[in-house]
Design a protein that fits this description.
Layout: H1 6-13, H2 17-52, E1 77-79, E2 82-83, E3 89-90, H3 98-105, E4 124-126
Length: 128
Amino acid sequence: MSDMSEEELNQLAELSVEQLAVLAANAQKMLTEKRQAKRTEAIAQIKEIAAAIGVKVEIEGEKGKRNGGGGKTKGGKVPAKYSDGNGNFWTGRGVKPKWLSEALEAGLALESFLITQPEAEAPLQEAA
């Protein structure tokens, strides 16, 4: 790979900060796309070679594959754990909702909001 010519560098020097920022962002996006394409191609070659000799390979971080970490996924749906009986629910994760904080400040126990129905019937909410 060759370095940029002096003329190309001079053209860059004439750009505004905003233009350089857009150029840098576009270049970063293109670099990411090219790296991903190269990685995908390499994975396909590895799998082809492995299949030719009767070996199955599993690539870490491959799309659609689990990456360890106990199987936790960010943003999944989890059953609600607490409810006030008025349609308000909380999974027990993240910041306590206002309705629950106010009830606790009023002296009610957290356990009194615990959903006693089986988890399969509890409404699902986005994980925090």
